[in-house]
Input
Amino acid sequence: MTKQAVTETIRICKDRNVLKQYLSNKDVEVVTIMMSLFDDEQIMRTYTKDIEKETERKSAERMIKDGELSLEKIACYVPALSMEELKGIEAEVMQLA
Output
């Protein structure tokens, strides 16, 4: 969501007489609040994706250490990781062994 989208939404609400008086008096504050909420939501989405990626990375690392599955098979179980990422994890695991 961009500032332009928020501003356009406020304009539409005013045109449809939805909170028209409030939005006319407080439109700058509403834009600021909406942009802040969007920023917070975006931060949470990014954080959640980072956590999920780390969890999948650790799962792949355990599977590689176990040594029973090929990287191709591991890629089926952790599709969020590319084959290049899996090869990198494998290299790290082999260095630690």
